[in-house]
Amino acid sequence: MSKLKIYQGVLCLEAPSPNGHRWWYQPGKLAYTPVKIKDIRRLQSGTIGLKKVLVVPVQMGSQQTMVAVNLPRSDLWTLQALGMLPSWINLPENPPAYAEWPEYAQFGKF
User: Fold this and answer.
1) 57 falls within a domain
2) CA quadruple 92, 30, 38, 100: dihedral positive or negative?
3) Which of 3, 49, 79, 96 has its CA 20 to 30 A from that of 11?
4) Is residue 89 part of a domain?
5) Which pTM does this prediction carry?
6) SS3 state at 110
7) pLDDT in tens, the chain (110 residues)
8) In what order do the strands lie in the sheet with 44-48?
9) How many CB atoms neighbour CB 83 within 10 A?
């Protein structure tokens, strides 16, 4: 986890980004949307196949969709401090060296 850029107070959702595919430099159409943790109202745990996931309900148009959180790229330490992190996620004691927020980047709005 420590080699990826993690921004303080930011969750990374696996949804289209306002910055297109260049956000976190993913290939093709895959992009991640940064969302401020303070804007998250609810998190849920679930499973996809045998893999445990953390999801956020997001309103997309007229439908509510569950969007997965990209755990390695998200500030899970802030979630833990706010009491929002599920017990099945174990973190190292010390938070990472947070990356500086890039000026060009925009937060996702749902």
Assistant:
1) yes
2) positive
3) 49
4) no
5) 0.78
6) coil
7) 446 789 999 998 886 555 554 444 444 554 678 889 998 988 999 887 888 989 988 776 788 888 889 898 899 999 999 999 999 999 988 888 998 887 777 776 65
8) 44-48, 51-60, 63-68
9) 6
